[in-house]
Amino acid sequence: MIISVSGMGYTGSGAVKDFLKQYDSIQADDKLEFNLLYTTDGIGDLETHLFDYHVRFMSADAAIKRFVNLIKRLDSPRGEYRLATSGQFRKLSMDYVDSITQVKWKGHWDYDRLYVNQLERTLRYRVLDKIYPYLEKMVGRELHFLIDKQMYYSCNPENFYESTKKYLNSILTAIGYNLEKPLVLDQAVPFDDPTRYMKYLDTPKVIIVDKDPRDLYLLLKKTIKSKGSWFPHENVEDFVIYYETMRKNSNQAHPDILVIHFEDLIYEYNLTTSKIINFLGIGTPDRPYTIFHPEKSINNTQLFNRYPDMSEEVRYIEIKLKNYLYPFEKYTKLRDFGESF
Known about the structure:
Elements: E1 2-7, H1 13-20, E2 27-33, H2 43-52, H3 58-74, H4 80-84, H5 89-100, E3 103-107, H6 110-114, H7 118-139, E4 149-153, H8 160-175, E5 183-186, H9 194-198, E6 204-210, H10 213-224, H11 236-248, E7 257-261, H12 264-267, H13 269-280, H14 294-297, H15 303-306, H16 311-320
Parallel strand pairs: 1-5, 1-6, 2-5, 6-7
Antiparallel strand pairs: 3-4
């Protein structure tokens, strides 16, 4: 069983991971954020261009090349995939590319000219492109290899899903995981469209964690700040649009998906942990309260009481996002805040 714990952007998924780390029978660590399935140019983009979008061979060639370039970037000397797999990541990835590619040859087309730096474009596709026909006449044979690159063709490959599962399992094995035991992966599928990516994993279970928008906004404004720049929070109006649109366009209905609120892990600990236990079919933690501490995490809630200077923004969120507010009024109002992280 592969358990993906996914947040919606600083919404507290780490709390669920910490809870599951308290089991001796579950593999749960922080070796890397396993985003290979849905990151741009990743597995999901490959599937789209190999199955759903065909323009002669060109879509497949471009998609595979982008995937290969992604692999090279992730395999940088300090890349977390390289480090986690003890240097095996690139070979495993290129073996996967070979397995889903139907034809390979040397050549080039417009994509190769467009997606290179200016120096290479000038030397390879302007200077050499003009010179090599004259050289061919001189030597009497083809010399277009001087400007050619690897070309890929694949259209509806029948082995795509089987090969993808084998590839992902090979990465997990290289990391050192035992695939016979339950395994927790950080953000292995995205929160907004998890079902599309679950098909790549063996026996997946997904836990998605959300958070009250008031606390999320104040966390971004007061604590995370520039580290959360990928999430709009310079003004509350943009934050509200982003928060609501993301959730309105999410598809999380599936029997193997459990959606919980970070706050419920604290204010409704027994009920919420029982949901997690029943959902995963596991027993009680071997070492409860040793890693996840609700009494400490509570300091990450009711932040609107900690920052009265943000009352106008908080009120705006309460009006615009009233359907997403956590019912803090049912619980004791926090007045004294301790250390949260």
